[in-house]
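Before surveying the methods themselves, it helps to consider a single example record, giving the amino acid sequence and backbone structure tokens:
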Amino acid sequence: MTLIKSISGIRGTIGGQVGNNLTPIDAVKFASAYGFWLKQQRNKEHYRVVVGRDARISGEMIQNLVMNTLVGLGIHVIDLGLSTTPTVEIAVPMEHADGGIILTASHNPKQWNALKLLNEKGEFLSGAEGAKILEIAESDTMTFSDVDSLGKITKNQAYIDMHIDEVLKLPLVNKKAIEAANFKVVVDGVNSTGGIAIPLLLERLGVYPVKLYCEPNGHFPHNPEPLKEHLTDLSEAVVKERADLGIVVDPDVDRLAFMDEKGEMFGEEYTLVACADYVLSKTPGNTVSNMSSTRALRDVTEKHGGTYEASAVGEVNVVELMKKNKAIIGGEGNGGIIYPESHYGRDALVGVALFLSLLAEKKMSVSELRASYPSYFMSKKKIELTPEINVDAILKQMESRYNNEKLTTIDGVKIDFVNSWVHLRKSNTEPIIRVYTEAPTQEEADSLADRIILEIKSFSN
């Protein structure tokens, strides 16, 4: 079992030994450290924190532990209950809160949960801020409030509707065109909060949703990472229902992937490409994605006269570079859309509205839209970490072996070949080395990944 403390928050498996898993004691410890840090930063009389969760089975237990820990620190809590990551992100500034906590392990299986921590802008904390919280958690400096100074919990379960209101207000969301297109869409909500939010959004846009796994009970019907191999039921449903497309999100609704009318994946990498194409066609500018994302975003950005830049992996890194380069849209190739006109966070609701606006205006099928973009193919593989694997040493060896190629080392090692690339890095969210490749064909991408994995295994033997 595992407890991972990283730029992506405090993530671990439920149960087991304290300090090695996300036990109740660990949840209280890290919630205490966050609340204590927040009070140090903000230095005011009253504090407010927004808390929401996805539908995973452990969510209610962890949320009650976290909220009452904050209450013990004298912090008032706005309880959103079942929510989405982007909903909590927009709620923080709307509530004039000092921060927010999202209880979700994103794409991880049901035995995982996590505390994702936000600042007063509703954005993820920086690496330095996260490190400070980890330092506080291991110290004995925390003090709690006396009985007359305890915080209070206020429930507000209207925020998914309010989030949808905010999406519909975006100038580039063409509700009229979407309504006229009369789309029929199958939605796979992986039995989490996307099953609440996405159908509601579609109905407000005049789209007919067919619900698949939209009961928010936390019993994921398949691996919750929205990849092709996990989505056979969605593919079959799209064809059976003669739908215009399929939509799938991860459990906390910050990742988004589409399926075409034939039941074929649009490609989660191309979620951002399509949304950026639409936004750039209306408001030219720059884009940012991370180093593990497709070159197609660069191609589309340059087609519209903008500049593309790549950041280290991690939403906070993408956001930082977007602000620096004044990017008008960005995100991650895993289906994460960041549209600053809304907020600086990955948001599947925003992505759905922009994608459907593009599709409605172009009056073409999803498969035709996909065929209109530069064609790259990715392989996303991983190597499970064991105690004898020294990741840093392996990356150094790979860097040395390929020192005649174009190398980028701001986040693991990325090797750029003429017609392909490979990115090797230790995951922030799982005990694995990620091996991502991209090439002109799927066969070449898979072959490159397999070759690199064999090389890595030869180093560690």
Summary: The chain has three domains: 3-157, 163-371, 377-460.
